[in-house]
Amino acid sequence: MPKNKKRAKPVLIFLFFALFLVSNIDFSQLSAFNDGFYTSYEEINEANESKKFGSFIKLSMKDNQLSTGLDKNQSGDVIFKLFGFIPIKKVTVKILPEEEVYAGGEAIGLAVNTDGAMVVSDTVVDIQSRNILKNKYLKNGDIIQKINGQPIQSVSDIDKVLSQNVSDNIDVELIRDNKQKTINVGLLKDSENQYKLGVWAKNDLSGIGTLTFVRKSDFSFGALGHPVSNGQQNSVVPITGGNIFDCSLIGINKGQRNKPGELRGVFVQRNEQGTIKKNTNCGVFGKIDEDSNLFDSNRSLKIGGRLGIHTGKAKIISSVSGILEEYDIEIIKANYQAKSSDKSLVIRVKDERLLNLTGGIVQGMSGSPIVQDGKLVGAVTHVFLNDPTKGYGIYSDWMLEQLDF
Fold it and tell me: pTM of the full predicted structure?
């Protein structure tokens, strides 16, 4: 009897594994949906009808009320069941809000203050030889936050600390590649025998992007879809705040193969339209003025979760022509990701009007809303270098969960 029991267990495991193999279950999809993603009953039903996770997997959801501070947020448990009755995975999800958001699409000017001084050039002219030298210690993109333990919030703070220094070396605390480092830096002296770091630095960044959405209840906004960065890959510049502004487009450099295009725009850093609170790998977020002309209060949509996104027809909203318009695109691929990424979707521009105007996706369009089945499901983030008609997008629910300031 004990011998038969020992045989039975491996046989059951083998049969269970065999069922998985023949049931067309996509393990990459199952593993990508972890605790915390946004969804709705409608998306659960659609996933079951389309057999999103294979012919033998059914989803069910039971919701509950969670209370956080003064706000009540609905959450639920989604159960993945084999044959509709064998539970194989359970995740706690956030239920998508019924509230609609104002769709974006307008080009905006952005100006942020960095939390520290950012190195923008690591070369210096040697006083004696007049040769251009590269700094041995600091690199472009480094965010200097402390020198000899003293906080650095602006370039003037660097000069102030160095004017009190009596040593040829200092300790610099900085952020490089999203990591904190402390480096002992050798100083240079200028023609007046004053200590210098030997780099150019600044404490603000500016550029143009696109507004993605504005939440109706509190006028919090999301934009850009990717971080304001220092030019280094996957970098997120720490900021102390910033503002968004009305931006006037003055031209378009059309995208070409291996030569990304761009929107050319100008904005004046006054008459702010809103404040920037956060810079994250999902974009920039803050509060927009209720009477701002950067969004159309007559154009609103529900936000869709990534469970409901599928390949096929979609649209993007953009003001590249001078007015807000919808353009036809195709979602080629929806990547299954357990962590937020600004390369969640692969899209292709299909609309001849946009292709004739821009050549496809161009710099400055980052943040343009992606709409599918009447819902805001994502935002444009990047263009393919070798094919400007194609680009990446981020899921809108990655952006939605950043509105917690």
Answer: 0.86
